[in-house]
Amino acid sequence: MTVSIRLQIKTMYNDFSIKEQAIADYILENSGKVGHSSISDLANELEIADSTFFQFTKKIGFNGFKDFKIAMLIQENDLSAISIHENIQKDDTELTMAQKVFDSNISTLTDTRKLLREEDLKQAGNIINSSKRLFLFGVGGSEIVATDAYHKFLRSPIPVFHSTDYHIQLMEVSLMTNEDCAIIISHTGRSKETICIAKFVKESGAKIIVVTSQASSPLAKLGDVVFLSLSEETEFRSEALASRIAQLSIIDSLYVIFRFFNQEKSEKSITKVRHVISGIKK
């Protein structure tokens, strides 16, 4: 696996059964022990069948327990490094706290970059490039990422639409056609409002690019292309804060890719924007 087992488990956690969540919790809490134990020892401790643990390792992307155990041993040092900045301690100085936040953000970007696939980036670029209009949707903290995307894509040749008001977002989605596309952002991928928007987009026939932290979330299942943002957190930061850094970077990547699909038109768009803005900076 290219991403840490710890983050893979966190990404899929909400879609595990109760028994699978118990296995996941054990691995997260005893990562050092798991890599040095047999499947029978782990199954006995969890009071489950060997086959149950074996099937869990397959569910998170491995060929079986042996493959999983090797990956655990390889990543053991990485997991130890993560724990250094995972929690802010009471006795930490302000500088140490800030450094841990930076370390967490760096880790978030590194882990998210490992999940990027060229075919997904190409497909997303082609979707935007072949669409007449681009719509951006997000609520709560994700709306901030959507607004940032709107600010960027305004400089591109494609007509772009975004509103901070959810009711207006619903009105916008009602006007979408199969010639349009949407980028929909949600940290959990489970927001009722966002899923409602995605279903309406799907009904219109428009393509959907999803940016989320949950691979098996309802929103991810509605996407034509899905980009995952993964993050380790410090104790006093919500998950959405760290994942936002990765989501912004994914949006930046899509913007740059689309611009290079349309270099001449993009340069004209940017020139027009710069010309207008320069008038108020003198």
UniProtKB/TrEMBL annotation:
Check the record and name the Pfam families matching this protein: HTH_6, SIS
PROSITE patterns with a match to the protein in the record:
HTH_RPIR (PS51071), SIS (PS51464)
User: Which keywords describe this protein according to UniProt?
Assistant: DNA-binding, Transcription, Transcription regulation
GO MF terms on file? Answer: carbohydrate derivative binding; DNA binding; DNA-binding transcription factor activity
- Every copy of the SIS domain together lies at 124-267
Q: Which residues form the HTH rpiR-type domain?
A: 3-79
Q: Which domain of life is it from?
A: Bacteria
Could you tell me the Gene Ontology terms of the biological process aspect for this record? carbohydrate derivative metabolic process
Mind telling me which InterPro entries this protein's record contains? Homeodomain-like_sf, HTH_RpiR, RpiR-like, RpiR-like_SIS, SIS_dom, SIS_dom_sf, WH-like_DNA-bd_sf
Name of this protein: Transcriptional regulator, RpiR family
| Organism, as annotated | Carnobacterium iners
Q: What is the lineage of its organism?
A: Bacteria, Bacillati, Bacillota, Bacilli, Lactobacillales
